[in-house]
Amino acid sequence: MEFSLEGTTLHVSDVERSxxxxxxxPGAVVQVHRPGVFALLKIGKSRLGLLGVGASGQFHIExxxxxxxSAYERVREAGIEPEGPPKDSWxxxxxxxxxxxxxxxxxxTALEDGA
Length: 115
Known about the structure:
Elements: E1 3-12, H1 15-22, E2 29-34, E3 38-43, E4 46-52, E5 58-65, H2 68-77, E6 87-89, E7 92-98, E8 104-110
Parallel strand pairs: 1-4, 5-8
Antiparallel strand pairs: 1-5, 2-3, 3-4, 6-7, 7-8
């Protein structure tokens, strides 16, 4: 099982405005766009998510893994308590933890069928 930093998701007040801004970065490619809710851009080898939560100035990081259920157990064994069990959502399976400063860390893996 490997772990890899996949990208960052910014919590933004206006997805469309942020998408206009970040979409102008040379080489940025929009992979997912749910107007007003979420956008995902591929920039080089990493991803930048724009999540419309009505507030700005926050973010979370994403750590990808090939075996999410094993990662969940390993995180718990390391003394880090996830916010809940892994869930399927938006084409991936993930779970969340909070760091000591309150930042979210999302562990995820892509679903085979892209659900």
